[in-house]
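Tokenise the fold.
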Amino acid sequence: MQALTEQDLHNLAMNFVGKKLQEMGYEFVAVNSKLKKYPQFVLFKKGEPTIFVIVKATKNLQNPNDYDTIWIETFLAHAKKMNAKVWYAGVGIANAESVDLPVFKDQPYYFAFDDFLKL
């Protein structure tokens, strides 16, 4: 069995969040799926400000929205200069048999996603 890489897990989270955003009626101005390149999504919806979405895949199913506060403050300052709002999407992904095992390719896994944190 092959364990998913950090990039693979990030891509799963990106696909999951992208579908949610489309269901909410947002258009993608830009998408960046590279790890540690932010924001992952730049959104547009007529009559609303630009929205930057940060997507983070985590093994933390209990609190997928935990984030680095100092880093977020820096990013929020950048977004403010661009007149953009920031949403954080923490997506917990874990092996369906045991959270102690890695997520394997073509094996069941769980998603934990509460909602977008509007920062």
The CA atoms of residues 39 and 82 lie 12 Å apart. DSSP finds two helices and six strands in the chain. The longest helix spans residues 6-23.
